[in-house]
Each structure stands twice: as structure tokens, then as C-alpha cells.
Amino acid sequence: MTSHLLFPGTFDPPTLGHVDLVRRALGLFDRITVAIAEHPTKDALFTSAERAELFRASLAGLEGANVVTLEGLVVEGCARLECDAILRGVRSGSEFDYEARMAITNRRLTPGYETVLLVTSPDLQHITATLVRQIARMGGDVSSLVPAPVLEGLSKRFRR
């Protein structure tokens, strides 16, 4: 039996932390589908199609990883894509509390789907997509925070 994880998020933009979680999870599971989602309360820097392309380019050559865009509830996407579980990254205790509540809610919405929480690598715990967007908008160097394709995308977006 193969195992297939769904890794949902807005990923605006994808960071080195996101890529690290995919790589590490592929050591535990056969396949991972990164699901680029829209968030109704967030004003995105990149469109979902642009974010999907940036993530695909960042995962180039990584066997077992796929990137799609996702509309609707995560658990519905999990069922549509025939995933076995949901992957979420955790950087801190407050994130754990939030993710634990989401996992319980998702399990109640669609019994049978578990959530796998992976703790972020210590050297990447400080990275957030929000921080990357803020630094990039102000002309700062984000090269140590994002994969090369994302750095190129940010440079084009902000014409640097």
C-alpha cells in the first residue's frame, strides 16, 4: 500500500521551510501533493497559479512530489486527490495548538483523515511567508529564506 500526503497551504510565497518539510516527509511517505489554496482573508502577492509554478520549480527533480491548486475544504481535496493524510508544519507551541484544533476539526468533518505534524528544522523555524513578503517589498535580501525560483519570482515582482 502506498501512502499519499496532502500538504495544503497558501504558500505565498513558498519558502525554504516549506521545501524542507516536503523533502523530509518524502522520507516517511511515498507521495506528497502540495495543494496551493486561496485564503479568503489574505491579500495574496502571487496568484494561486503563480504560487503553484514557483513551488513546482522549487521541487524540480524531487520524485514523489506533485503540486496542484485547491479550492474548497482541505478534507474535500484530500478525498478528491485520494490522499491518506494531511501534512502540516509546526514552528512553535502556539502553532501546535492551532494545528491540533484544525486536525480535530478536519477529522470531525471527514472521519478517517489524520493530520501528520512535522516540526520545522531548527535552522528554518524563523522563516514565514509573511516575513519574506515584508522584506521583499522593502527591498531586502531574502535569498537565505526562499528557493532560487522564488527569489527570481520576487525579483521580477518587485523589479530588482
Throw out a few tags for this protein.
160 residues; alpha/beta; Rossmann fold; five-stranded parallel β-sheet
Which regions contain 5 or more consecutive residues with pLDDT less than 50? none
Shape: globular
Question: Class by helix and strand content?
Answer: alpha/beta
Number of contiguous helices: 6
Give the CA-CA distance, first to last residue. 48 Å
List the domain count as a whole number. 1
Query: By CATH's scheme, which homologous superfamily applies?
Result: HUPs
Instruction: Assign the CATH architecture.
Output: 3-Layer(aba) Sandwich
User: Could you spell the SSE succession in H and E letters?
Assistant: EHEHEHEHEHH
Question: Main beta sheet, described?
Answer: 5 strands, parallel
Overall mean confidence score, pLDDT: 93
Offer a concise description of the structure.
By secondary structure, the chain is an alpha/beta fold. The protein contains 6 helices and 5 strands, in the order E-H-E-H-E-H-E-H-E-H-H.
Task: Give an account of the 3D structure.
The protein is α/β, with parallel strands linked by helices and 160 residues long. The chain has one domain: Rossmann fold (3-Layer(aba) Sandwich). Helices cover 41% and strands 19% of the residues. It contains six helices and five strands, in the order E-H-E-H-E-H-E-H-E-H-H. The protein has helices at 16-26, 48-58, 74-80, 93-109, 129-137, 148-157, and strands at residues 4-9, 31-37, 65-70, 85-90, 114-119. It has a five-stranded parallel β-sheet, sandwiched between helices. Strand 2, helix 2 (48-58) and strand 3 form a beta-alpha-beta unit. The longest helix is centred in the middle third of the chain and has 17 residues, at 93-109. It is globular and about 45 Å long.
